[in-house]
């Protein structure tokens, strides 16, 4: 795609902004900022990846993956405002998930240990874990608010924080995984996923593209489950005070 052709895609943004003005949605500023940021960020990432791919140095690969985890943790941590050190807990959960996923993929020889494979797959895994973390924290807030009386009653009867929170944690974990599970059920029928589409556009055999996409779908499902479960185990005590009372965020 030429730069001239790429520049014409700004029409899509302009149409969106015009609709916002027409419907008085007051989203023009956010759309403009998002457009500029996304373009600049993607261009910078493109040059950074080009440099890393050419150098093929393990330290640079670890650095870029670590940067992804930090950004994802900070962004998802905003959903848990009021919880102490929540971004660190999210970072720990995402890091464990990333190590498990890439350890299996590389250890079993499913993908080659090169930046071209490690960085894109890590980015998709971390991004999915970030979304799951945000969904989990959002659902936890709603569950705690709606089940406050039940939780406090269980605590008053002598239940441990874990026991009082058990049902809340289960519902939150299930809710955070719904988009991933729904995506598994409809992949290839409702949409052609990004990796598969990109490979086909780049000229790869559709069957080979499907094989890689199956790998991604399975990895996403596993990473979603691991992230949400780890996060629930590590953070449930954050909802209680030192004397085992339910905190008010």
TrEMBL record:
Superkingdom in the source lineage: Bacteria
Subcellular location: Membrane
Annotated InterPro entries: UPF0014_fam (IPR005226)
Family to which the UniProt record says this protein belongs: Belongs to the UPF0014 family.
Name of the protein this chain belongs to: ABC transport system permease protein
Membrane topology: Multi-pass membrane protein
PANTHER family: PROTEIN ALUMINUM SENSITIVE 3 (PTHR30028:SF0), UPF0014 INNER MEMBRANE PROTEIN YBBM-RELATED (PTHR30028)
Ranges that cross the membrane: 6-22, 34-53, 59-76, 88-111, 117-137, 186-204, 210-236
The entry's keywords: Membrane, Transmembrane, Transmembrane helix
């Amino acid at each position: 795609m030429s730069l001239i052709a790429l520049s014409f895609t700004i029409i899509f943004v302009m149409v969106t902004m015009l609709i916002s003005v027409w419907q008085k949605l007051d989203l023009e500023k956010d759309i403009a900022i998002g457009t500029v940021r996304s373009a600049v960020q993607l261009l910078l990432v493109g040059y950074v990846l080009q440099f890393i791919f050419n150098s093929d140095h393990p330290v640079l690969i670890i650095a870029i993956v670590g940067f992804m985890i930090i950004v994802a943790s900070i962004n998802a941590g905003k959903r848990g405002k009021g919880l102490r050190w929540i971004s660190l807990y999210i970072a720990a959960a995402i890091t464990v998930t990333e190590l498990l996923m890439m350890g299996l993929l590389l250890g079993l020889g499913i993908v080659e240990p090169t930046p071209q494979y490690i960085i894109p797959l890590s980015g998709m895994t971390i991004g999915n874990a970030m979304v799951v973390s945000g969904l989990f924290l959002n659902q936890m807030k709603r569950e705690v608010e709606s089940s406050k009386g039940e939780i406090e009653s269980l605590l008053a009867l002598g239940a441990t924080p874990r026991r009082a929170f058990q049902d809340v944690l289960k519902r939150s974990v299930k809710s955070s995984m719904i988009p991933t599970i729904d995506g598994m059920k409809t992949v290839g029928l409702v949409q052609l996923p990004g990796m598969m589409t990109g490979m086909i556009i780049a000229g790869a055999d559709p069957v080979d593209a499907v094989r890689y996409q199956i790998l991604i779908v399975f990895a996403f499902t596993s990473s979603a489950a691991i992230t949400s479960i780890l996060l629930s185990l590590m953070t449930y005590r954050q909802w209680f005070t030192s004397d085992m009372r339910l905190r008010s965020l």
